[in-house]
Give the backbone structure.
Amino acid sequence: MKDILTWIQAWFFSQCNEVWEHSYGIKIDTLDNPGWSVVIDLNGTSLESKSMDTISINRTEDDWINCSVSDNQFKGYGGPENLRDILNTFKSWVEAEH
């Protein structure tokens, strides 16, 4: 079983077709509360126009995630130790759609 970083790298590379990567991609950033922000473009992928039920898990002030799809983007936000949870949520959604 691939770890999530290996999986997300492979997913990204599988989208690269000499066009997609010039306009779209994956953005991982930090939040000031503190936490993580992940935005993954779905335009031009097999997931374009697919919907996803919002996932919101709030365990504590620092242990939470909120993931959804809007504007043809997967958008995930989470606490300072929840980056792996956000990426695994995206992976689970991708695998459920295929």
